[in-house]
Structure formats: structure tokens, C-alpha cells
Specification:
This protein is an all-alpha fold. The chain is built from five helices and no strands.
Length: 123
């Protein structure tokens, strides 16, 4: 993977706005949109330019997962099982305690009546 380098560029505001809109639509960063545009431009001129093998931030996540896996593997099988059972108990306890309050508002009594009727049919 090639090293990432920070640069500063000046763009017309409408072009930057268009890049930001595209980034939001693709659920990507502004940097990714600009880099992808440059890749397409350069690939037409100088051949193929490839996306880095690791997505932005994925390296850190992979390192954290490896660290946790290595620390878990240092435990005995009995200790791993005990911790898994404890985690399961904690999860079930948290689910029981976490009762949600729901507030529902209606514009009219007719809306409430339709909602109530639908709930009774579904029950």
C-alpha cells in the first residue's frame, strides 16, 4: 500500500459543494472522492492506478482485532468459556433492564383509533 500524503488545494466553491454532495451520496469521505477522481483522470493518461488494498481506517481496526484475538488466545479454554458465559449473562441482564419508553402522538382521534385497531388485529 502506498503512503498517504496530505495536500492543500484551492477549488471553486461549487466544485467543492458537488464533491461533498457526491461523498455523502456514496457514504465516502471528501478525500476519497477527490482521490477517485484523480485516479480516473490519471488512469486515462498513465495507465492503471489502483485503490489501496486497505480502506481508510481499516488497518487500525484490523490491528485492534488481532490484539484482542491474541490476548484471548493466551487464556485457557476454560477461562474463555467462563468469560463468554459471563458476557452472555451480562447481555441478558442489560436487555431486561433496558425498558424503553415510547411516546406516540396522533393528529386526530381517528388516527389513534386506526393505530389501536391495527395493534389489536396484530396481537
Amino acid at each position: 500500500m502506498s503512503k498517504l500524503v496530505r495536500i492543500t488545494i484551492t477549488l471553486p466553491k461549487d466544485l467543492l459543494d458537488a464533491a461533498d454532495t457526491r461523498a455523502r451520496r456514496l457514504d465516502r469521505s471528501r478525500s476519497w472522492v477527490v482521490a477517485e477522481s484523480l485516479r480516473q483522470l490519471v488512469s486515462g493518461i498513465a495507465g492503471v492506478v489502483r485503490e489501496p488494498a486497505v480502506a481508510y481506517g481499516a488497518r487500525e481496526v484490523a490491528e485492534a482485532r488481532r490484539f484482542h484475538a491474541a490476548s484471548d488466545l493466551r487464556l485457557s479454554p476454560a477461562e474463555r468459556l467462563r468469560r463468554a458465559e459471563e458476557l452472555g449473562r451480562l447481555g441478558r441482564t442489560a436487555q431486561r433492564r433496558a425498558r424503553r419508553q415510547q411516546v406516540i402522538a396522533f393528529d386526530s382521534y381517528e388516527d389513534y383509533y386506526e393505530w389501536k385497531k391495527a395493534r389489536l388485529v396484530g396481537a
